[in-house]
Write a structure and sequence with these properties.
Blueprint: H1 4-17, E1 28-32, E2 38-42, E3 46-49, E4 52-54, H2 61-65, E5 73-83, E6 95-101, E7 104-111, E8 114-121, H3 129-138, E9 152-158, E10 172-174, H4 190-208, H5 215-241, H6 243-252, H7 254-264, H8 270-281
Parallel strand pairs: 4-10
Antiparallel strand pairs: 1-2, 2-3, 5-8, 5-9, 6-7, 7-8
Bound molecules: flavin-adenine dinucleotide (FAD).
């Protein structure tokens, strides 16, 4: 478990050490990438560059302004962080309850004396996240005395199954959530954001060295993630449409869960997970 404040501040420090200039409190107003360069209009000035990497998250202004954000599917999430009082009681508690809510899951994570509690669902229509969030808490006796002061709602974009990736402009590339690179089964995106950021950086270096064209970025991202995401979509459809059936199978075959942990740790792939699942269920 990692606190995002600490982790994100660490990344900013690393970027600065590597030579990045951090500019804060400045709003993006517009982008022009129609020529062989990029012009960014902000609330405080105008910036010109050869390439732009849009890594501005789920509600990416860069993606919207370049017309690249149209096809995304959205996870709707709601979460709250609460102080528990006796942190030790919860330090070992990590709960991920797939199927706890329609087309999604709920979680309870310990973080430095706090609990992060949330739900995420890929079902967008007629879905009331607050209702399911409160029900998820109510069903857990160990959460009965907690007081939620403020909850936060977010959206997590993911690319629909078998859809061409819309992540490059003429001189702009999208990375992370801005590119819809989250896992369709659980909405996990930190790994994909960091990895796609690396690939975007490498692509721009190669572009400057004239070793590449911008389409290579889309090819590399497709190769790296998309076949995996297509397996993850299949798993999401199967599991979220029949959560009780799958929970029965999983309870009888705990090896499936252990194998899935390896996928989450990046030691195994979704395609090998699908094969494993088929072998176990087919027995
Ligand atoms: C409740 C919740 C729980 C999650 N839990 C997990 C988890 O356990 N594991 C996991 O892997 N993933 C998790 N995710 C997903 C994960 O947070 C994202 O996939 C990941 O943060 C994406 O990284 P990113 O850099 O693309 O975007 P972000 O982390 O959102 O960073 C985007 C940055 O751009 C900045 N920005 C946005 N707009 C502008 C603008 N106009 N001008 C300047 N700056 C701008 C933002 O301030 C932000 O700093 C969770 C998401 C949510 C909502």
């Amino acid at each position: 478990m990692v606190s995002r404040e600490v982790f994100d501040a660490y990344l900013v420090k690393k970027a600065e050490e590597a030579g990045a200039k951090i500019i804060e409190d400045e709003r993006l107003l517009d982008i022009d990438d129609s020529q062989n360069s990029v012009i960014v209009f902000s609330s405080k000035g105008i910036y010109k560059g050869r390439y732009l990497i849009g890594a501005d998250g789920a509600n990416s202004s860069v993606a919207k302004r370049l017309g690249l954000a149209k096809e995304r599917r959205l996870f709707i999430t709601i979460n709250a962080e609460i102080k528990t009082g006796s942190a030790e009681d919860f330090a070992d508690l990590v709960e991920i309850d797939i199927g706890a809510i329609p087309y999604g899951y709920g979680w309870v994570f310990p973080k430095n004396g706090s609990l992060d509690i949330g739900i995420a669902s890929i079902k967008n229509k007629s879905f009331n996240p607050k209702k399911y969030f409160l029900e998820f808490i109510k069903k857990r006796p160990f959460l009965k005395d907690i007081k939620i002061e403020k909850e936060y709602a977010f959206r997590l974009p993911t690319n629909p199954e078998n859809t061409p990736l819309n992540i490059i402009g003429k001189s702009a590339l999208l990375a992370g959530d801005a590119a819809g690179l989250t896992d369709p089964l659980v909405g996990e995106g930190i790994y994909y954001a960091i990895k796609s950021g690396h690939i975007a950086g490498e692509t721009v270096i190669n572009l400057f060295n004239k070793d590449s064209d911008i389409f290579n970025y889309r090819e590399r991202i497709s190769k790296e993630f998309i076949s995996e995401f297509n397996y993850s979509w299949k798993a999401a459809k199967l599991i979220y449409s029949m959560p009780y059936f799958w929970s029965g199978i999983i309870k009888r075959n705990i090896k499936i869960v252990e194998f899935y942990y390896k996928v989450l740790r990046g030691e195994e792939t979704y395609s090998s997970f699908a094969k494993k699942l088929k072998a176990i269920v087919g027995k």
